[in-house]
Amino acid sequence: MTQPTFPGRSFFHGTKAILKHGDLIQPGYNSNYGKRAMAGYVYFTGTLNAAIWGAELALGEEPGRIYVVEATGPIEDDPNLTDKKYPGNPTLSYRSKDPLRVIGEVIAWQGHSAEELTNMKAGLARLCDRGVEAIDE
To answer: Which position among 8, 10, 41, 48 has the lowest Cβ density within 10 Å, counted as fewest Cβ atoms?
Structure first.
């Protein structure tokens, strides 16, 4: 279900990309996850915890980063989570075909424990072994 833009509302985007204020995060680049296929959407969340997972699980050697972003166009619930794992969207996970504008960065954030991270990565590896992609565009 597509929703209108939320003027003035900020969201979070976890990644390993190095960005600055005013940069646009947009579809058309390789995904941070799975087979790194061309992303048709940009993904973001209303919760810091979900953004931390994004920053920790993104592929790449850079440290994880969490950016405060604003949507520039319509958004929709992320069906990879809301339809498959968390009905009702309690993680406030969204996606958009329009860019996100970086308006800040969360500098001081606490990552998940080593055990939580290991368990999450093992779960994602099991899904991959079964041919299930983390993000279904």
So the answer is: 8
DSSP string, the chain: -EE---TT--EEEEES----TT-EE-SSSB-SSTT-PBPSSEEEES-HHHHHHHHHHSSSSSPPEEEEEEESS-EEE-HHHHTTT-TT-TT-EEEESS-EEEEEEE-S-PPPPHHHHHHHHHHHHHHHHTT--S---
In angstroms, rounded to a whole number, what is the distance separating the alpha carbons of residues 76 and 63? 28
With both helix axes pointing from N to C terminus, report the angle between 114-129 and 48-57 in degrees, rounded to the nearest 10.
70
Q: How many residues does the chain have?
A: 137
Mean pLDDT over each residue of the chain, to the nearest integer: 81
Record the pTM.
0.80
> CB of 78 within 8 A of CB of 90?
no
Reported as a single tens digit per residue, the pLDDT across 51-82 is: 998 899 887 888 999 999 999 999 998 887 66
Q: Which residues pair with 65 in a beta bridge?
A: 15
